[in-house]
Automatic annotation (TrEMBL):
This is FAD-binding domain-containing protein. One of its GO terms (molecular function) is FAD binding. Residues 6-187 form the FAD-binding domain. NCBIfam families: GG-red-SF (TIGR02032). InterPro entries: FAD-bd (IPR002938), FAD/NAD-bd_sf (IPR036188), Geranylgeranyl_Rdtase_fam (IPR011777), Geranylgeranyl_reductase (IPR050407).
Amino acid sequence: MPREWDLIVVGGGPGGAAAAAVAAVAGLETLLLERGGTLRHKPCGGILPEITEELIEEVFGATLPPEVLAEQWELRLRYTPPSGEANGGRVRESRLLNVKRDHFDQWLRDRAALAGATVRQNARVSDIDVDGGFSVSYSQRGEERRATAARLVGADGVHSLVRRRLAPDAVATKMLVGQRLVQVVGELPADFHCVFAGVLSPFYAYSVPKGGLLKIGSGMTEEERTDLMPSLDRFSKWLEQNDVADLGKVVQQEGWAIPFGEQQLDAAGALLVGDAAGLCNPLSGEGIRLAIESGQLAAESIIEAGARSPVPDYRDGVAGIAQMVAALHRVVLTTDDDAREQFVAAELARP
Ligand SMILES: Cc1cc2nc3c(=O)[nH]c(=O)nc-3n(C[C@H](O)[C@H](O)[C@H](O)COP(=O)(O)OP(=O)(O)OC[C@H]3O[C@@H](n4cnc5c(N)ncnc54)[C@H](O)[C@@H]3O)c2cc1C
């Protein structure tokens, strides 16, 4: 049966934009479907490790423009262990990028369009049929539509419809991350501050300057969800008591999930990338870079495989990321305050 597209990508976050950009540059007729409108909001800290800059240039063919960067666009990483500020400090040579996530994602989608992909926003995918290829139903501005393709990439995030439809039995454990945007009286802290202490949060608590405000966050398992907002209250107090910041009014409060350990790299011949595949660092909550990398690998596997199934190539290509995520998940499950203390001491002692 003739297909309209070589590839349909569901979801236009970092993973989907990367897959679409790489596929389109190679000449594949690529359709990207994103349910959100322009500047769709995604709850996120918007922190990228330095090496992401190079990756973005490689995948999207351009460097990040100033309009996607937060006012304090370059940050250092500061760790505090459970024993407190006295034993914390800046990680030597650390350099992090601080982006405005909504603008960042839109720029990535625009780059995919410039590369030649057809990008449809306000296009919510509702169903997928597998019939030798893929038939995707979606609605766009009240109109029900359908598109067909030989290949499919599921880049639709932690609650992925592609994964739920094509691998209904796959387990998808999640971690919840709560965030508050808070006014600060006086000076904003200058670092990305990551605080480890069981009394504050079972995983991590962080603060990041964003515009003239401070974003503070905390992560929990789904079972601990009722403690998410109390954890942010405890962390707010901690920031004040430790003279990190004098907090004012809460401007915004939100929560969203990240994958926590369980992976599903493909389903019924479709390739899953980023959060949809479970590829997010459970130790730090970092997922943007892994989404871009896996999106790139998915597109490259599709290009390389031609008429063959791209699944084996993709599994091979993404194995390094998948193993790292699995290893960090095992670490997180066995981590207590003693282990966190040692982790911070080792990070700060690094030459
Ligand atoms: C509170 C919080 C803070 C975080 N902070 C950081 C951080 O500082 N640094 C970092 O690296 N990572 C961070 N992460 C993780 C990071 O946000 C994710 O790992 C990353 O966004 C994954 O990218 P993705 O492209 O796989 O999925 P997403 O960014 O979730 O993109 C999926 C896209 O698919 C679209 N979509 C979903 N369903 C459909 C559908 N049915 N039809 C069409 N489109 C659909 C969505 O609208 C979305 O645009 C944080 C996560 C949370 C929750």
